[in-house]
Fold:
Amino acid sequence: MRTLFKSLLLNFLMSAFVVAVALPIGFHFYERMVAGPARLIGVVDVGEVYRLKETEFTQIVTRTTSEDERQKALMMARRFAQRLPLALEELPRECQCLVVVRSAVAGVPPNAVDLTASLKHKVELP
Structure:
C-alpha cells in the first residue's frame, strides 16, 4: 500500500512539474506566433498615394510638348500600376501584421501603425 501511495505521489508531482513548465512555454509561443501579430494593425492611405502619383503624372504630361517625355510619363504610370499591387502585398509580410485601408478604420486604434510612408517609398514617391 505504501509503495502504491509513493508511486501515485511521484506520478502526481511529475505531472504537476511538466504542466508547470509546459504551460508558460505554450503561452509564450501562442502570444508570439498567434495572438501577437493579430493585434497589430497596419493602416495605409492608398487614396493619398494614388492622388500624389496622379498629380505627378499630370504635371509631367501638361508641361511637356515632346512625345518622348509623354512616353516616359506613360511608362512611369504603367510601372506605378504594376508596382502598387505588389507593394501592397509586401506590407503585411514586412510588418507581420494585418494591413487595412485607412478609410476602413473608424478612429485610430492604439495598436495601429501607419504604413503609408513605406508604401510611398515602395512605389517611388517622394
